[in-house]
Amino acid sequence: MSPTDTTLITLQKPIELDDTAAWSAYRRTRMAELSDMITLRNGAVVTMRAIQPDDVERLQQFHARLSPETIVMRFFRVTPVLYQRDAAQFTHLDYDNRMALVATVGAGDDERIIAVVRYERVTATEGELAFVVEDQWQGLGISTQLLARLLRYAQAHGFERMMAITMATNVRMRGVLAHAGYPFTAHYADGCLTVTLDIAHGAAPAR
Question: For residues 173 and 166, is the Cβ–Cβ distance under 8 A?
Fold first, then answer.
């Protein structure tokens, strides 16, 4: 698809939603039905659900628990604080052009986010992926399971390709993407690796 194709829809920046619009989108898309329990490699059971507009503080607390190394792997720079405005942008979604799943432990006031996987639509059929797992929960298969569910959701919403840009030294993220079960291509430039998953025709044996 060429840059001049008029069917392309390029999103310049996320549309900011207030609480009312975000909750309306959450209910309209029946996000509560996505909630499920997933079992990790160590036998622990955690909750998987769509991110919610009231997750602002939980997301800020999650970010504060991340190590500087994990933050850099996710944001490509040191950002020890996730400010209110940024957290609101990450949690107030339309669940179509922008979508995120989280893994949590605890319940009610004690619920804590321990992982996030998200996408943002870039064109009509392409999106950009990002995910991060709290340090003590890494290596247990959380991102693999969240990503699998998110990609199935993306397929149902018209996506054909999902791109992820990661630091070349981010071995875990590279491994998750390479074993996601879809054909992929990878391009290296300026210390970063761009991995593009072809999700148009369903999962295929990972390479």
Answer: yes
